[in-house]
Design a protein that fits this description.
With about 230 residues, this protein is of the alpha/beta class. Helices cover about 35% and strands about 30% of the residues. β1, α1 and β2 form a beta-alpha-beta unit.
C-alpha cells in the first residue's frame, strides 16, 4: 500500500514514517504551512526544515499553504491529500498522533471522505517505551520550542538523550507535563533518522524566549554525509 506521511519535521511524524516504512511503501511526505502560528491542527516551529528532511530521506514532498484558521485548514488538508492521491497514488495517510483526539478524529474523518486508510502507529503508545525506542533507533532530535513551565531557555536546541529523558520524566511527575510533549509543552526537530541518507547540520540559529515560552529559529542548515 502506498502511503503519504503528514510531516511536521518533529519526532512523532518522522518516527511514524519510520514505522510505516517497515510495513508499507511511503510514497511521499505531506506538509501544510500555516500562516497562523497558533494553528489548531499543525506544528509550526521550523516547518521550513521539512524540505531538507525530505531531501535527506530521498522522498518527494507535497506542501500546501493554509491560513491556519480552524475550519479552513481542514479543507486545505483535504485538498492536499487529493493532490497526493493524484500525483503519488497514495491509498492511506500516516500521522504521528499520540493522544490528541482533536487531531486524530478530524484527520480520520477527512480520510474516510476520501476513501483513504488512516494509520496512527503511535496512538496511545507507552510514552517511556516510545521515547527510549526513538533514541535507540538512531533518531537525533533537538528541542525546537518550549511552551510551559519549567522549561527555561537552555532547552532550546537541546538534544533528546538519556539525560534529557530523565529530566523530562521528573517534569512529568512534578509539573504534570506529558513526557512526549503531546500536550504542546515542547516541540522538536529531527536532524537524523535511520532512513535519512544524510544528516542535517544546523549552521546558524536564533533563540527567542520569554516567560517559559520560546522557539529555536533555524536560519541556516545543510545536509552532510553520515
Amino acid at each position: 500500500m502506498k502511503l503519504g506521511v503528514l510531516c511536521s519535521g518533529g519526532k512523532d511524524s518522522l518516527f511514524a514514517c519510520f514505522r510505516a516504512m517497515q510495513k508499507e511503501e511511503v510514497a511521499c511526505l505531506i506538509t501544510l504551512f500555516p500562516e497562523n502560528l497558533e494553528s489548531y491542527m499543525f506544528h509550526t516551529p521550523n516547518l521550513h526544515m521539512v524540505p531538507l528532511q525530505a531531501d535527506a530521506a530521498g522522498l518527494p514532498l507535497k506542501s500546501f499553504q493554509t491560513e491556519g484558521i480552524e475550519d479552513a485548514e481542514l479543507r486545505d488538508l483535504s485538498e492536499v491529500l487529493k493532490i497526493a492521491v493524484t500525483e503519488y497514488g497514495i491509498e492511506g495517510v500516516v500521522t504521528g498522533a499520540l493522544m490528541s483526539v482533536y487531531q486524530a478524529t478530524r484527520i480520520q474523518r477527512i480520510c474516510k471522505d476520501l476513501d483513504l486508510w488512516c494509520f496512527n502507529p503511535l496512538w496511545y503508545t507507552d510514552p517511556v517505551r516510545y521515547m527510549n525506542t526513538l533514541m535507540a533507533s538512531g533518531f537525533r532530535v533537538v528541542v525546537s520550542g518550549v511552551f510551559a513551565e519549567p522549561f527555561d531557555e537552555s532547552w532550546l536546541g537541546r538534544e533528546l538523550d538519556g539525560t534529557t529523558l530523565e529530566i523530562l520524566s521528573g517534569y512529568a511527575r512534578d509539573y504534570g507535563i506529558t513526557l512526549t510533549g503531546e500536550g504542546g509543552e515542547y516541540e522538536t526537530l529531527v536532524l537524523d533518522a535511520p532512513f535519512f541518507n544524510r544528516k542535517i547540520v544546523i549552521q546558524e540559529s536564533e533563540r527567542h524566549y520569554r516567560n517559559f515560552r520560546g522557539v529555536l529559529s533555524v536560519k541556516r542548515a545543510s545536509l552532510e554525509e553520515k
